[in-house]
Design a protein that fits this description.
By secondary structure, this protein is of the alpha+beta class. The chain has five helices and eight strands, in the order βαββαβαβαββαβ. 28% of the residues lie in helices and 42% in strands.
Amino acid sequence: MRKHLVLTASGRDRPGIVERFTSTVIAADGNVEASRMARLGGEFAILMLVSVPEENLGAFRESAESLRDESFDVHTRLTDCVAAEEMASSTPCGITVMGADHMGIIHDVARFLASQGINVETLDTDVVAAPMSGSPLFTMSAVVKLPPGMTVDQLREALDEVAEDVGVGTAVHPRITEPESQPEE
């Protein structure tokens, strides 16, 4: 029987980090089931769902956590894989948010989603230079799961109200495909 763990790690960015962490997975006869990795500032952050044979669980955790000696902050946590029935009972969709950068956009959108019982599956944000003016432009793309009974149209309508209050444009996409690059305004 295989056990699943979430591994989180961060440390000063340098070449070879991904290879170093994946080698600990391979050494434990493990597999990376899903991952997100990114350079943030001068740090490199890793988030992985790893499966390993139950008999290798202790050795894997010890090996992964020993990477602290190489200046990484490392944590592992056992997790259960979500049942397919649970996933099927909610509607997935994508959300895109874009507008002039200012404090609180992520918080305001997240507060709205939480108040509606909407689960965030993934969320990516960035601030880039606007094409014409060069001023800071905030972008967010997320994949969310709507609670039973909520429709994509209901989400779109409610999110439009939040967007108006926050001063951003939004778009809601009814499938887990890449969101459009420009939100509706």
